[in-house]
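Appendix B, record 7
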Amino acid sequence: MSDKKCRWGFLSAAWIGMKNWQSVALSGNGEIVAVASRDKVKAQAWIDECSSHVPFSNKPEAVEGYDALLARDDIDAVYIPLPTGVRKEWVIKAAKAGKHVLAEKPCGVDLAEVKEIVAACNEAGVQFMDGVMFMHSKRLEALRETLTDGSIGDIRRINSQFSFNAGDDFLTGNIRMHSDLEPLGCLGDLGWYNIRFNLWVMDYAMPKSVSGRMLKGASRSDSPDQVPMEFSGEMFYENGVNASYYCSFMTGNQQWAHVCGTEGNLRLDDFVVPFYGSEVKYTVSNTESNQHVCDFNMEQHDRVVAINEYGGSHPTAQETGLFRNFGELVLSGAPDPKWGDIALKTQQIMMACIESSKRDGALVEM
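Structure tokens (predicted):
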């Protein structure tokens, strides 16, 4: 096994980066070289805090300014959790600097931005990927087997919900409540996962049409416009399958997904962030209706499928898999364009749902 590492730079000392700091450390093929912030003191304090919990053999360096980090020749890849409103600028700058890019989602404020991002990365020959961690869980391999082995029959419907109750401080101060920074609100922050799961189940086939409704909008006092607080959408396929989703900053924490077929269904209670423990699971359910004269009985037959994978903070966790898989692509010297294509499809569906919501839920053809 090669001792060569993917050398990471983090653009921003955002809180989500703390999770990913540990993911790089546990990946086995990565190391963080530098962390940039507009304020070097802030970057250093963030590094010190992360290092006290998960140290690297060589402590990462604090850098003032994102351009300074991109100019370094000791960095192979950058992680960009900057607000969506400014993300395109820095992804394209990173690509032009020859850096591979792992970016948070949504990837852009609209489809045109994501097309620019993917084109710039392809032209520069660098890897682009969004930070959807569940895509790197071993659970997906088992799920695909269940979806194709006849356990639930032919897929007919997909349902999912991803939500959390944000609270007053979030509603008045968080960047996700500012339309210049995060114009897509809960749809971009949470609905991205719902749409991605639907796409994955359908093996990335695009729906023929979609609809969407913004159930509630709100904003910070300094925001020019409202952002989605609650959103629901539907995706309709040529083969008759339809997929519905709901995302919200106002409803208690839920992250369930159901795939219903002609013979049964499978259920995930934690499709985005696995619950704490040493296994990730899902349930395959088949029911049977029996009658004997006046006796009517509905029998439930459930089968739990468990995969040996920790829910977080472990070499087997999905977030570690994300950085390990990205690092392998970087070190191989062979970027995989499928990840940019998947991001484009996700953004395209999301923007069509936004368009539908502006037309009172009217169908938008894809």
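Remarks on this record: The chain has a mean pLDDT of 96. The two ends are 45 Å apart (CA to CA).
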